[in-house]
């Protein structure tokens, strides 16, 4: 009697648990029916009811309904993504030195760090899923970048890719990658050639060359300085010589002018004396006694003193007596 009552009391509990389980299952099914796709994300619906096993159109961000148990989602980010290949272990998707090794036209080995900024074409998400699933970085982008870089580097010399032809080479790689990615349902936003470095041997050779060029530039600068100093000294000497010539010419011209003035003065004096001979006596008196204010002249004498005779008098030799 007691056992039967115990069995009867256990049956309602079992029904209750079954009801709870059914409610939970229904809730789970309803919850899995409604799916939310975050922004910058699209999803491929894998469905057992659709031809090919997937819906023909991807689901964009927002709330959607799928068939529980018969459909599930494969989500993809359609935002811009960056794939980096670098010698620095902390920068790239692959740990360790993941720079791209390539050989130039003149046989030099270079190592290149790059970044590729790209995104999935949301209108071609179904094709991307069919062809690549989530392997597109390792199986598509990585080998495409390595191939494009090696092909471009092989067309230039080592000095060209680090100086005059770097931008041209970067444009060539960008065009190649744009074409490759667009054919595989991806959109290339930009290609960044981040760094170019060399083997230790070549880096040493480049450093030595740069040192030699710097020394040559310094020697050239010294030579130019000496030339400038010599030119300045020459110009100073030329200026001094020109000044001396000008001074001599000025002195000569002044002497000519002075001589001409003296000649004209003498001509004027001669003219005056020719017209007035007594002027010479007047000048003689003035020179003789500048302080004399009164002069008495005897009657009938022309001169108060005889004019000095400037003609030398010949001397008579004295003959001694025998």
Structural overview:
There is one protein chain. With 322 residues, the protein is α+β, with helices and mostly antiparallel strands. The protein has three domains: 76 residues, no CATH class; 118 residues, Band 7 domain (Tetrahydropterin Synthase, Chain A, 2-Layer Sandwich); 47 residues. It is 51% helix and 17% strand. It has seven helices and eight strands, in the order αβββββββααααβαα. Helix 3 packs antiparallel against helix 5. The N and C termini lie far apart (218 Å). The mean pLDDT is 81.
Low-confidence stretches: none
Structure summary, number of beta strands: 8
- As for the CATH topology of the largest domain, it is Tetrahydropterin Synthase, Chain A
Strand content: 15-25%
Number of helices, where a helix is a run of at least 4 consecutive DSSP H or I residues? 7
How many whole angstroms does the radius of gyration measure? 59 Å
The average pLDDT is 81
The CATH superfamily of the largest domain turns out to be Band 7 domain
Q: Specify the helix fraction band.
A: 40-55%
Shape: rod-shaped
The number of distinct structural domains comes to 3
Structural class: alpha+beta
The sequence of SSEs as H and E is: HEEEEEEEHHHHEHH
End-to-end C-alpha gap: 218 Å
In the CATH hierarchy, the architecture of the largest domain is: 2-Layer Sandwich
CATH class of the largest domain: Alpha Beta
Largest sheet: 4 strands, antiparallel
